[in-house]
Amino acid sequence: MKQPIWLIGVTLLAAAGVVGAEEMKVKVTSDLGSVTVEHNGQPVEIKRNQDPDNRIAEDYQQTSRECPPFCVQPIQLLPGVHTIGEIELLKMLKARAQGVDAFLLIDSRTPDWFNKGTIPSAVNIPWTKLYPGSSTFDPFVAETLLLDEFGVKKEGGLFNFRQAKKLVLFCNGPWCGQSPTNIKALVALGYPADKIYWYRGGMQMWHTLGLTTVEPS
């Protein structure tokens, strides 16, 4: 029995792996659908929520928080520090996954916020661990982070930042001072500003765009 033309077309598409494949309707850009990173040893695909009825998480619906401390942060935080958005961060994550870039993605929020969900592959280094003005600041912990996590060396009692890692920091959004506090503390210690990248939009914009989050295991 001769097959209808439309059925022949469907058969050919299926053979090519086209039919049955989920088409991504909500991309990041027209040519960037998703980025896969490693989080806790497992691959995680970062993409926008595909549900057109999805709504922003309740924690990020509030528009008005007292300032101070929740003041709107400037675009240029400090001279030399790179301010980036979602596309720039995703491209950096893609490049890192391909082995052509290397950096540490830091969630500067306190653990109570971090535990609600974070950007895949981020590590939690709260602002309280690097800022000397914090009531829980421990200089030994701060130094350990610099030496063991950030690639800083210590020579003759002084920090050497020549091989320090590239860092990308973020927190809750343009109204959040946690990552700016971390960045200012690092630069005050001598960390090269041009090795620091700040994702200003933070979790506020990440949620607003429906991008993938993960909860700590």
How is the topology of this model organized?
Elements: H1 5-15, E1 34-39, E2 42-47, E3 82-84, H2 86-97, E4 104-107, H3 111-114, E5 123-124, H4 139-148, E6 153-155, E7 158-160, E8 167-170, H5 178-189, E9 196-199, H6 202-208
Parallel strand pairs: 3-9, 4-5, 4-8, 8-9
Antiparallel strand pairs: 1-2, 6-7
Task: Provide a descriptive summary of the structure in words.
With 217 residues, the protein is α/β, with parallel strands linked by helices. The chain has a single domain (34-208), classed as Rhodanese-like domain (Oxidized Rhodanese, domain 1). It contains six helices and nine strands; from the N terminus they run αβββαβαβαβββαβα. It has helices at residues 5-15, 86-97, 111-114, 139-148, 178-189, 202-208; strands at 34-39, 42-47, 82-84, 104-107, 123-124, 153-155, 158-160, 167-170, 196-199. A hairpin with a 2-residue loop joins strand 1 and strand 2 (42-47). The longest helix has 12 residues, at 86-97. It is globular.
Which key terms come to mind for this protein?
alpha/beta, Oxidized Rhodanese, domain 1, five-stranded parallel sheet, two-stranded antiparallel sheet, 6 helices, 9 strands, globular, disordered N terminus
